[in-house]
Amino acid sequence: MTMFHFFNCAILTFGPHAVYYSATPLSEYDTLGTSVKAAVVYLGTALVKLVCLATFLQVSENDGFDPYQELLKALIGFIDVAGLYFALTQLTHRNISQNHKFQAVGLGWAFADSVLHRLAPLWVGKGARIHMGYILQGLEANANLVLSISLAALASLIWLRKNKPKTLIPIIYACAGIVATMPSITSYLRRGLGWYFPKVVGFELFTSLVMAFISWQLFFCVPKALCMSSRVYALLYHSKYEAVLIAHQFTSQASYVVLPWTTPLPTLDFYRLCSLKV
Amino acid sequence: MATFKKSGGLRDLLESMYSVIALLFILVACVELCDAAAAVDVYRLIQYDMSGSPFGSRFAALNHHAASLRFPPGADLSRTVLIIPLRELNITFVREYITQKKPLGGLLFLLPEVLSFKHGGNKQVHEKEKMKKLLAELEQLLVHSNIPYPVYFAFENDDIDTVLTEIKKNDAMGQPATATTGGYKLVIPTAEPKKVASPTITNIQGWLSGLKADGDANQLPTIAIVASYDTFGAAPALSVGSDSNGSGIVALLEIARLFSLLYSNPKTRGRYNLLFGLTSGGPYNYNGTQKWLRSFDQRLRESIDYAICLNSIGSWDNELWIHVSKPPENAYIKQIFEGFSNVAEELDLKVGLKHKKINISNPRVAWEHEQFSRLRVTAATLSGLSVAPELFEGTGSLFDGRQYVNESAIFRGVKLVAESLARHIYGHQGKGVQIFADESSLAANPAYIRSWLDLLSQTPRVAPFLSKNDPFVMALKKELADHVDEVNVQHENLEGIFTFYDSTSARLNIYQVASVTFDLLLLLVLGSYLIVLFCFLVITTRGVDDLISLFRRPPSRKVKTA
Of the ranges A269-273, B113-117, B500-504, which is most confident? Predict the structure, then answer.
């Protein structure tokens, strides 16, 4: 594989991350710090996962699908989810809206994943012959990016949004579960059913697009609680049926839907507000 | 204000990104070759001049594309190297190319791994006779032709096999390897081969004195046992000559050892001097032997009763030949032959007599004893070969490796020669006395034979490439010195009509040449994909207006902020 081909595969694997960062408003609001922190958290969880895998997993001789080993791997994969939770909630971020927070975290997460799992084979394989596997790996990185962002969206829905409609909660958790266990599903497909790598990559791309669409719909349908941002100026009225006027600095064109509150609120609670971006 | 600054900053970022990417692209497009797909040891065909006429492969450096035998007919091969494994070798095809002087970039012959003395080990060779015949024919063709491009030999291994299958696939699709369509390139970066300055041949002689009776002023008669130790083959770095003449050297050393045991005690010392000669220059009409004999004192030469030359006694089944140049009716020849036949009968093997007259005007010397005969010394050659070899035939060819010799054949040969000599020395002709009986302390040692044979089978011994103080020559000298009283080393220059050129082995790098068009297409596709992705994301997250504003440069605003 020449340097030229290496360059091609590298921009296929890492280009979308850079493009995503520069194309969306993430670059405007300088969320690089968030992404970097998320990447560091990913590295930490990867280390913890490695230790757990090394301790609990047995090396199997054949390449078949062992359900118990896979179950164990899936359980350890939930450490991933825990890391994502940590990155979303515990780290202090600068003043960014929840909308951009999950994107930044998802982006940093996916970038760290690509670097960790795909950079080394690409660099080492530089001297070998041209291999379609590197291009497929790049496509897989793209799918992984979309999946990471959807997972971050669903995770932020689960942990950062307080008031969700009851009917949507199981769907949210189901989707999050599916996305979180994607690695186990792909490994089952590859080993248990014996799918070839191109087929698996195609499946990943398809599911990532589907999950992205579903999580997008979910994200924008669940009414949003205002995030704790000092840029939000809230004027509260403690009256039962009065409108609440909130100036939202992220969009200059926010249209408000006024909702009467139905339950007694403590003093510093925020009213539900559904902001629709045009 | 803030938004203007942000968009300006974004534009700067994008511009710098584009310029960096463009620079990288230019840099990367210049680099075409990548790391080697494989690196193999290769051995060059010999290059020599004989009386001014050039022979062998005249070039060493290689930098061409590779092709297999399935190249599309009519393709131009003047800048391609043909890779030919031995099992697909068609001698007539190669002969056609060489004799008709068709243009070719180079030849690479792939030999089976069993023939390698480094990695082959002791595996059995399948279809020995067929391979031997094919290799002999190929070697004779290559050694006696003048080939104006590099010819190399290599051993098959996994790397080369995969490369060859790839090349065959490409050729089958009708695509000869060029810069744009991809393929493999063979590169050997060596300098031009230089002449070997004054090649030396080194003769080693060992002298075992016999028992001189008190008061006897006459010179004791001498019996000489001679073997030539150097080789010559198509690939000098692979020319180990286990049978020709490794077997002879081993037999000579073992006989020297046995007689040194006998001669160490004055009570059992014979009344004959023994002269052991390890000569060089064998393939070149026994040039070394001639010079060695010429250096003898007249008295010494006259005292030699007879000389036995050993040549290729490692691969015979049950018949050995004694080649003589004096007519068989000669009394001395009769005596020698009878002595050998008697012992042969006891050892249950046959010995035949072959007579070949010497033609003084013909410079070709086929057997070593002919050099003795030209100086009026009675001599005979003991050999497993029944026919005299041609020039450069069977003097250490590619198949003459460890698997080709049979150490039990050498063992029996040693017993035959030692017993016959001993009976002549001690006067026990015709009597059924076994001096070197098995299980006795004077028995021939098969382990000694085997260990020396193994060493010889791993040492290429082409004389022009052996320096004056070559470690192998020193080892032979030391070994002989262990057994005999006195060892002398004689350095001579090889006969002037031969000139040799160096660069006998090299390292071949096989590079995979990428087809640039594929990568360019891929870059185009990826670039458009990224651009589409960028536009899609901008539209969905910021709106179409932002996308359009990226391309429109508002000069008036810039002036304001400045």
Answer: B500-504
Q: Give the confidence band of A127 by pLDDT, cuts at 50, 70, 90.
A: low
Q: Say if residue A184 is in the same domain as residue A256.
A: no
Summarize the confidence of residues B41-50 as an average pLDDT: 92
Mean pLDDT, rounded, for A136-161: 84
Q: Which residues of B touch A22 (CB under 8 A)?
A: 10, 13-14, 17, 534
CB contact (8 A) between residue B519 and residue A2 = yes
Residues A107 and A79 in one domain: yes
At A190, the pLDDT band (50, 70, 90 cuts) reads confident
Q: How many CA atoms lie within 13 A of B532 on its CB side?
A: 6
Q: Convert B369-428 into a string of H (helix), E (strand) and C (coil).
A: HHHHHHCCCCEEEEECCCCCCCCCCCCCCCCCCHHHCCHHHHHHHHHHHHHHHHHHHHCC
Q: Record the tokens describing residue B455, joined without a space.
A: 């060493």
Which residue in B10, B34, B536 is closest to A127 by CB distance?
Answer: B34
Q: What is the count of structural domains for chain A?
A: 2
| Residue in B with minimal Cα distance to A30 | B6
Greatest CA separation for chain A = 72
Q: pLDDT tens across A215-274, in order?
A: 888 877 765 543 333 233 333 333 333 334 444 433 433 334 444 444 444 333 344 443
Let me know whether A164 and A261 are in one domain. Answer: no
Q: Report the alpha-carbon distance of residue B333 to residue B455 in Å, rounded.
A: 35
| Residue among B514, B526, B533 whose CB faces A2 most closely | B514
A246 and A223 within one domain: no
Q: Which residues in chain B touch residue A25, judged by CB atoms under 8 angstroms apart? A: 541-542
- Chain B residues in contact with A126 (beta carbon < 8 A): 34-35
Record the tokens describing residue B78, joined without a space. Answer: 């003047």
Q: What are phi and psi of B407, to 5 degrees?
A: -70, -25
Distance CA B158, CA B117 (A): 18
Q: Which amino acid is it at B500? A: F
Beta bridge partners of B185: B65, B511
Structure tokens at A259: 């909702």
Host domain of residue A172: 3-227
Specify whether A120 is located in the same domain as A254. Answer: no
Give residue-wise pLDDT tens across range B170-219. 777 765 555 445 678 888 988 899 999 888 999 999 999 988 877 666 78
The CA distance from A268 to the nearest CA of chain B, in Å, is: 32
Cβ pair B516:A4 closer than 8 A: yes
